[in-house]
Amino acid sequence: MKTKTIVSLCVLALILAALACQIPGRSQPTSTADTVPPVEDTSEPTDAEPVLETETSTPTTPPIETPTDTEVPPVLLPVFSTPVIYTFEMFTPTRGWAVTQDQDHLLITEDGGVTWLEATPAGLGSLPSGYTTFGIRPFFLDESTAWFTPTSDGSGLLYHTQDGGSTWTSTTVPFDNARYHFLDINIGYALVDLGAGAGSHYVAIYRTLDGGASWTLAFTHEPGESKSLREGGAKNGITFRGVDHGWIGGSIPMDDYFYLFYTEDGGVTWGQETDISLPGIFASSMLDVWQPQFVSDTTAFLPVRAYTPGGSTELLICRSIDAGQTWSYQGTVEDGLAVDFFNLDEGWLAAKLALYHTLDGGLTWSTMTTAGIPAGEFFLKVNFVDSQHGWALTTPDDMAWDPLNLYRTTDGGTSWVLLLP
Questions:
Q1: Helix, strand, coil proportions of the chain in percent (round to 5)?
Q2: Reduced to 3 states, what is the DSSP secondary structure of residue 334?
Q3: What's the pTM?
Q4: pLDDT tens digit string along 40-86?
Q5: What is the rounded CA–CA span in Å between residue 107 and residue 419?
Q6: Which residues span the domain enclosing 120?
Q7: Per the domain annotation, does 250 fall within a domain?
Q8: 366 lies in some domain
Q9: Count of domains observed in the chain
Q10: Mind listing the pLDDT tens digit for each residue in 16-48?
Q11: How many secondary structure helices (H) and strands (E) does the chain include?
Q12: Phi, psi angle pair for 32, to nearest 5°
């Protein structure tokens, strides 16, 4: 009888202990291993405060997080030590691309530019005889996707990656020395240099609908034959918005000549923009028209460098709010070298000894204080991905461009930290 009593008491104690674990306010920390499989943490360090887990009495699944750039798998590539970077394009606060100044190495970063990884395809091999650089000029669609054609001996190869340079595919293309513009992973255009001479710049335009696997010739210049896309003048690049609508900007040594051509049939025929009005103070200036920068389906900014009769150099900003059908003059900054808009209103402009900021679509520009960047640095390039995260390329010597210094801000341009060299 005594033994049965002891056993009964033990069982009762176990039941009470089990019930106590379910009383509110008395729960033990719940392990996610009891509810969902553990998720490997591949996130990158950020400046955000850590999120503290709260104990709860009921099993819960981890909260659903807003998609961020950390969802992109990490790139497993070797570190490229002390790169000299001139061309760069960031897509998130941590991820972006760069090309070294000699145009021989393609790099990628996953930590905001602190560390750069070697993403150049191993299959490039050696340079053709007589060349000193691969001349890498990529088109970056996003932080993982890029295309480029290196200098070759005539047998053009298009290199393409969709995983941040970890793996590359190469495809033989019917051209060499091309600049690209892709709308998405499939639709793209190639502006191919055919040679220049006597004030003319001959080009061909190809289109792909399968990511670069095959190309169709849309337009080409031919000796002795006048075409809708003017042979004269230097062509700076090609930009498309949709399959049919595209633009080519450039310059010609002639006063008041606005060199901007457009197509509405995928590059087969071209017309010249003739209805863009500039303030009278820029009359008799020589104009160098850059490529449109689209920030939405309908809004784009068009930078135009004006060399005035008085000897000054001005960077004019024009804007379109109807997908490039019409353009209107917004504002200007003296000595402007590079401009970057990341939404309808906010943009940044590098102008030699100053960095400028606009919040009204380029109508007005204000000089920014740039704590952390020594006085006397020349601003060459600027790139922002949002209102807080940006990068600037500077040099103390605007003649030799040596050294090239890369800075980063995480507080909207108030303070800057040197990343390179």
A1: 5, 35, 55
A2: strand
A3: 0.80
A4: 444 444 444 333 333 333 333 333 333 445 566 777 899 999 999 99
A5: 15
A6: 77-172
A7: no
A8: no
A9: 1
A10: 343 343 433 333 333 333 333 333 444 444 444
A11: 1, 30
A12: -65, -20
